[in-house]
Structures are given as C-alpha cells and as structure tokens.
C-alpha cells in the first residue's frame, strides 16, 4: 500500500506543554480517524502535517516531499487540502468567490481552468445551486461544505479535516460523512473528530491521541475489541467501573473490570476508546 505520509519522532512544546510528544505514524489511502480528548494534540498534529506550524523535533514526508525544505514545503502545500477547525471565511464572499480565492492561493493561475475547477468542487459537495449566495446566508452545514470544497481544490492527494462535523445536526452530519467517504476514495484523508460514530462509519484505521502521544493505532474493529469482556449492564452504579452511565432503560452500562457473573454487553468503538484513555491514565475529556 502506498505511503502518503510518514512521520517519525514529531514533537512540539508550548512552554511546559508537550502538544506533540514523539509522534510517529504512517498514513495510507482511505480515511484515518484521529480521536482524543480536548487538548490531546490533535489540532497540533494536523497543523504540523499541513505545514501550518513547524515541529520542534522529528521529521516527516508528505507524498514523498520533505516539508523541512522550502521547495518541499511549497510542493506539499500545492498537493494537500486542509479544512481547519475554524475556516476563515469572509462572510460577504459568495461560495464561488471564496473557493476561487482559495484556488488563487493554491496558484491555479489560468482563470478559465480555475473557474472550471471551482465549479467542479462545488458540484462535488452539492453546492452548485447556491454558489452565487453569500456565505453569511448559508446554513452551518452548507458553510462546512464550502470549506470542504475549498480543501478539495486541485484534487489533493492528502486531505486534512479538523473536526468537520462539529455543530452539524444529525442529518447534515450524515450528509457530510458521505462526502468524506467519497473524498477518501483513492485519497489519503486524516480526520480529527470527537464523534466515535464518524470513525465507526468512515474509517479504515483509527489513531487515539492523549497527552500529545499516540495511544492506539489500528483498525476500528481492533479498538472495539479492546473492550471485549469489559462492558456490562447492572441495576445500580457499579464500583468496579472505570466509567458508567444510566441508559434510557434505567439500567447502568459500565466499562472497566466486570465483577464475577456480570451481565456482559456487546462492546462499541466508544467503549474501546474510553478504555484506551483509561489505560493511558487519561479520563475522557481531560488531558494527561
Ligand atoms: N498556540 C498555542 N499556544 C500555547 N499552547 C497551545 C497552542 N496550541 C495548542 N496549545 C496547547 O497544546 C495542547 C494540545 O492542543 P490541541 O489544540 O492540539 O489539542 P486538540 O486535541 O486539538 O484539542 P481539541 O479537541 O480541544 O481541539 C493543549 O494543551 C493546548 O492548550
């Protein structure tokens, strides 16, 4: 399988905070999910790989190019698409104008060819009909699709998506997932998300980060399997549980070390994720 991104020993400190702590990874075509609690270092990793900030240590290549050199960095920037956590829209731009502006920044200099490319990516995200509308008039889901269209300009070989489904209602999220799945056909996508369903539905591989380090790297099925035999139902809160919550039926669902004779339940990817964080000494939602 082709390696699109190869990184070894990436580190980045902000004062005393190790935002990235010796991160090594290899990314191949398809969608790889990046899960982790707030402050885990996900955005920092994406920003480093997208060449938006340099790492303090370590090295990486994207599509065979070394972003450590000026020429390599320029080539990587031409060939990657990046949807940041807060896309910097100009609200008075129309969808077309915004994507066209990004296309200019990506050095698509021929006006006719560039406009064809802008129409192509807007069509790909189902926004052809509103391309003349101002961004401030579009719904949150549509804006996110404009940002995805901008990231897709120039058919990048590596696509970096930072929490793209945040704030979307379930229907919009489902639609956005379809677009991500489409974008991941034959292309390498790194998707940072807090939604374990995004990973379960879209990803061939998942990385779990906490405290700046990768704590798990495998398939979604392998992450789920980590919770096999460690999820159970009980009538009250179980003291042996690492995490437990009351379900809609009134019983408690627990993850951790079940007592003898516990009523074991089928594990989900979220259970595997919670236990991975716990094994790493991190509680979900709290950085190490
Ligand atoms: N520019 C910065 N200056 C100082 N500290 C920073 C900066 N950017 C990130 N950090 C710190 O680095 C750590 C990792 O942050 P990062 O934003 O990468 O986490 P994250 O996993 O993306 O979190 P979230 O899910 O909340 O977006 C955090 O402790 C954060 O406070």
TrEMBL record:
PROSITE patterns documented for this protein: ABC_TRANSPORTER_1, ABC_TRANSPORTER_2
One Pfam family per UniProt: ABC_tran
InterPro entries associated with the record: AAA+_ATPase, ABC_transporter-like_ATP-bd, ABC_transporter-like_CS, P-loop_NTPase
Annotated ABC transporter domain residues: 5-236
Keywords (A to Z) from UniProt: ATP-binding, Nucleotide-binding, Transport
Cleavable signal peptide: none
Protein name: ABC transporter ATP-binding protein
Protein origin, superkingdom: Bacteria
Similarity field: Belongs to the ABC transporter superfamily.
Alphabetized GO MF terms: ATP binding
Coiled-coil portions: none
């Amino acid at each position: 399988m082709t390696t699109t991104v190869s990184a070894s020993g990436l580190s980045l400190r902000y004062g005393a905070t190790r935002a990235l702590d010796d991160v090594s990874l290899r990314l191949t075509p398809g969608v790889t999910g990046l899960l982790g609690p707030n402050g885990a270092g996900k955005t920092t990793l994406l920003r480093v790989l997208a060449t938006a900030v340099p790492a303090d240590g370590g090295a990486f290549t994207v599509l065979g190019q070394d972003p450590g050199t000026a020429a390599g960095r320029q080539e990587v920037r031409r060939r990657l698409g990046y949807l940041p956590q807060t896309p910097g829209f100009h609200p008075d731009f129309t969808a077309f104008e915004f994507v066209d502006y990004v296309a200019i920044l990506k050095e698509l200099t021929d006006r006719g060819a560039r406009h064809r490319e802008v129409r192509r990516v807007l069509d790909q995200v189902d926004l052809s009909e509103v391309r003349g509308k101002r961004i401030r008039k579009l719904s949150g889901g549509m804006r996110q699709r404009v940002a995805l269209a901008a990231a897709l300009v120039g058919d990048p070989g590596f696509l970096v998506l930072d929490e793209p489904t945040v704030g979307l209602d379930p229907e919009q999220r489902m639609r956005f997932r379809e677009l991500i799945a489409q974008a991941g056909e034959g292309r390498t996508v790194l998707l940072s998300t807090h939604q374990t369903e995004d990973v379960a539905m879209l990803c061939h591989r998942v990385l779990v980060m906490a405290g700046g380090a990768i704590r798990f790297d495998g398939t979604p099925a392998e992450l789920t399997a980590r919770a096999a035999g460690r999820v159970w139902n009980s009538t009250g809160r179980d003291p042996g549980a690492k995490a437990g919550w009351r379900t809609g039926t009134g019983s408690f669902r627990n993850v951790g070390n079940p007592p003898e004779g516990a009523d074991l339940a089928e594990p989900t990817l979220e259970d595997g994720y919670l236990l991975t964080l716990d094994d790493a000494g991190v509680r979900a939602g709290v950085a190490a």
